[in-house]
Amino acid sequence: xxxxxxxxxxxxxxxxxxxxxxxxxxxxxxxxxxxxxxxxxxxxxxxxxxxxxxxxxxxxxxxxxxxxxxxxxxxxxxxxxxxxxxxxxxxxxxxxxxxxxxxxxxxxxxxxxxxxxxxxxxxxxxxxxxxxxxxxxxxxxxxxxxxxxxx
Length: 151
Fold this sequence. Notes:
Blueprint: H1 4-15, H2 28-32, E1 37-42, E2 45-51, H3 65-80, E3 87-97, E4 106-116, E5 120-129, E6 135-146
Antiparallel strand pairs: 1-2, 2-4, 3-6, 4-5, 5-6
Helix pairs in contact: 1-3
């Protein structure tokens, strides 16, 4: 069985792998999600915060859609490991982009496991603008489960 601690550990591992000598990220997640913080987890749920900086902005000065999709993948995966030892690979990510968040803002990411079946885990994710609580993206995420089977 997974645990909330496993969810937070996954987020720390994916977002804080930085080369000590160069200061450069070692994983794509660490590049896209640099600064992710405020991790909270409980069974089936994970939330965190990402400041919108120049590092993750698009040409319009708002949070890049690819960064939002990476948030869905990474934070959704963290929510899954709070209830299952089985991880796996992404099957699908569906993101509805609803509103921009400008540089200087902060995104609140909330992931909730909908179902863990025999072979697939399904997670819903909301991204909100911390300044006004407006939903800026809603997503569903599926992962193929493999490895240790939880009881």
